Amino acid sequence: MSRSSTQQGFTLTELIIVIVLLGIISIIPISFIRYSAQGALDTANRQRLAMAAGVVSEQISRDMRLALPGSVRLNASGRCLEFIPIMTSTVYRNAPVMSARPGFPVLALPGGDSSAGHAVIYPYAATTNELYNPTTPGVLSPMTVALPAGSGTVNLTFDTGSHQFITDSPRRRVFLVNTPVTFCQEGRFIYRYRNYGFQPTVGAALPDTIGDGREVIGAPLEPGSLLFSVVPPSLQRNGLVTFEFALQSAQSAERIYVAQEVQLRNVP
Fold first, then answer.
1. Category of 152 on φ-ψ map: left (φ > 0), alpha (ψ -120 to 50) or beta
2. Which of 7, 24, 106, 184 has the least C-beta neighbours within 10 A?
3. What is the tens place of the pLDDT at every residue in 108-127?
């Protein structure tokens, strides 16, 4: 009696085919996961850029709405903007226009608040550059003034000496302003500069540390993308500031372009 046995298995060709097919099948989920993850990262980068763009636009717009009429100016390239921010305003009764005086009566601020700053009456009587070079007589006082708390009429007094304004305001309005503020782009950052005083030209000597008055308000910008333009106010129309910039992600090719307009209220 003879015994026969049968052996079954894969040939080498079949094994190679199976390995190739398994490799092709395994690529599909890996590619799907990789592209899905990349899509999620791109979306996150896009959202971060959009949030950063919104913060920059809102910061500049809010500050610009407080600009003293006629005080907005640009450097030669249009990439730095400077303005004088208004702190508060009130109505005066008898300003020192005919001669210099150490103070004059004004209406107290609502709520009995006090304030201090440089006094301005009718900024349209001076050019923009004259506003940044305070003199006596002039529309902007070189010395600061103190506006005390109270009710009814209070006396606004100059901290040192006396001052004479050039002319009256049609509405007898006096502004109290702070020292100038500048927005500029350096590299991939937008900086806001303050506490550097009045200077004859835009960006002549700006602070270079946070403690001195420099702060970052936006990043990462596309180099050289920030640009300002100004339509100055007149007695018949408000002023208009337009600024544009682009944010460029460092992790991807995502890019967001922003253009914004800010209306400057014309209040004589």
1. left
2. 7
3. 998 889 999 999 999 988 99
Residue-wise pLDDT for 22-45, tens only, equals 676 666 665 555 655 555 566 677
Here the tokens at position 177 are: 């302003």
CA 163 vs. chain centroid, Å, equals 33
Q: How many angstroms separate the CA atoms of 230 and 233, rounded? A: 9
Burial of 61 (0-12, 13-18, 19+ CB in 10 A): middle
Dist CA 62 CA 85 (whole Å): 11
Tokens of 7: 């052996």
What is the pTM assigned to this prediction? 0.81
Whether 183 contacts 56, CB under 8 Å: no
Residue (of 85, 104, 212, 236) closest to 158 by Cα position: 104
Q: How many CA atoms lie within 13 A of 257 on its CB side?
A: 3
Residue with tokens 């018949």: 236
Sign of CA dihedral 206, 211, 213, 216: positive
Sequential DSSP letters for 191-209: EEE-SS---SSTTSS---S
